[in-house]
Amino acid sequence: MLKGIRAELSGDILQALCTMGHGDVVVVSDANFPSDSVARQTRLGSLLTMGNIPAPQAIEAILSVFPLDTPLQPSVGRMEVIGKPDEVPTIQQEVQAIVDRAEGKPAPMYAVERMAFYEVAKKAHCVIATGELRFYGCFLLTKGVIPIEDVVR
């Protein structure tokens, strides 16, 4: 255990998030996503897991250490509901609230069609599987930068 680091963040997850660069993408997936097979095609090449915790809890933990690229672009993608691209399920509403809190302002998510989501995920830096059981609990987080004045020395 480390001070100030949430218990949900394992050493492997922290290392993966730390080695990502500006513009790299991490996938946070639900229990129904083909996490292992997609993770094998990512830059990291292996699956990371956050046990049996729900996606909102996982994203909240990740965002405690992970800067989003929100000043430049929408930085959190969500998987679209098949046939209902404008529908935003409860799971996605919960994550939107977490993202807004982490950013200290509204930071709208962008929608990605299901099959396109899989293709983007294969090109991501890594996949972190959660125990989320609700459908459409899959998200893309784009890494931003940390200004020098915010770096702890």
Automatic annotation (TrEMBL):
The keyword Isomerase applies. The keyword Isomerase applies. InterPro entries: RbsD-like_sf, RbsD/FucU_mutarotase, RbsD_FucU. It catalyses: beta-D-ribopyranose = beta-D-ribofuranose; alpha-L-fucose = beta-L-fucose. Pfam families: RbsD_FucU (PF05025). It comes from the Bacteria. Keywords: Isomerase. Gene3D superfamilies: RbsD-like domain. PANTHER family: FUCOSE MUTAROTASE (PTHR31690). This is Fucose-binding protein. It comes from Roseibium salinum.
